[in-house]
Amino acid sequence: MKRNVLIIGAGGVAHVAAHKCAQNNKVLGDIHIASRTLGKCQAIIDSIHEKGSLQSAGRLEAHQLDAMDIEATKFLIRATHSQIVINVGSPFLNMSVLTACIETGAAYLDTAIHEDPAKVCEAPPWYGNYEWKRRQACKDARVTAILGVGFDPGVVNAYARFALDTYFDRVDSIDIIDINAGNHGRYFATNFDPEINFREFTSTVWSWEQNQWKANSMFERRKDWDMPVTGTSTTYLTGHDELHSMSQNLGVPNIRFWMSFSEHYINVFTVLKNLGLLSEQPVRTARGVEVVPLEVVKAVLPDPASLAPNYTGKTCIGDLIQGTKDGQAQQVLIYNTCDHKECYEEVGSQAISYTAGVPAVAAAMLIAKGTWDVGQMANVEELDAAPFIELMNRMGLVSRIKDAQGDRILHPRQESAYESKPRMLVNY
Ligand code: NDP
Description:
With 428 residues, the chain is of the alpha/beta class.
């Protein structure tokens, strides 16, 4: 059993993670929230009290922390007796926080791949440039480090794992489809950190096709999908974190990621990019001030967390998996839909933050109970997906499956084709 959680970051995803930890504090123990801006941590704590989210009376504290400072992070982990660290700060922090966890023995979780501020859309497999270099260190220290355990990356990796183990003899393709059919009512805003959001799209878009990496540029390949609840939406082939691990771990020849964008988003993005305002490289103004254009754009755009009160509509994110079973062609869609307004009513957040924060806490609970406390580094598709999907069904993120048998809630252990098998981590 591991107990006491330190949440790093105090943005939209941290807000949801903190509420969900509070709703499950009998299992998770003390909850600490640490970020650069102490007031943001305190505001999350106030919101937890307002919503009555605490399952039982317990410690809930805010801390000021620069998580790039490894020694300060180690000190806080030890001072708070935290055995689980949920890193939902900016992805620039991953390697510092991971190091602090390895050196203190705390379990580590994050929801995005590490980023270097000076680089975008790095060469695949991106994890190999950073996190995977610390695999042996995690193993030596018996530290559990679960990478990318939000929704995408995260839940979509688990959907792929579950489908491969349960419904197929051979999988030919996995299309991850991410639709946000919501409306926040603002002229322009991103649903999570604008800097990170834009950095995903400003350079090469990598996909995994015919067992090799294929480079595209953004908005080059378009495809319409008819999804449950959200209906038909236009998506574009996009590079995304999970492709960098699933391509290496699943043995599936084609894995693609499709994200929905409105014409308006594409127009604004194109203007900003063509003007050079999405560049991560510093420029000097006439007054001699050095600025990073992308950071300036972030500073003037709405804080994604501020979109929550007026957000309406739904998201639908899932995996369309195609292959064969007993020689017959087989197609399965595993997905979740989430309602922005319902998320706001429950925890005061919009659905994009909600769908990322809930899985991270579900994973923390599986570590606390020992089920996922594997004592080494793992991407989500390397772990047993069934307990994760089952737990999220009870935590507000319900998974569904649509196949030849119809459209139903996915209860992994009730699926007739499911066979319980101990999942072995890939031996590195
Ligand atoms: P936000 O920008 O809203 O929040 C980031 C937080 O990190 C802020 O509170 C920020 O502090 C804090 N932070 C930044 N630098 C430091 C530092 N040096 N030390 C301490 N704290 C720091 O982002 P989101 O909540 O929207 O996203 C959080 C993470 O989740 C990101 O990595 C994002 O990519 C990921 N994500 C994953 C998804 C998934 O499905 N897998 C979906 C959505 C997001 P300050 O407020 O002071 O700037």
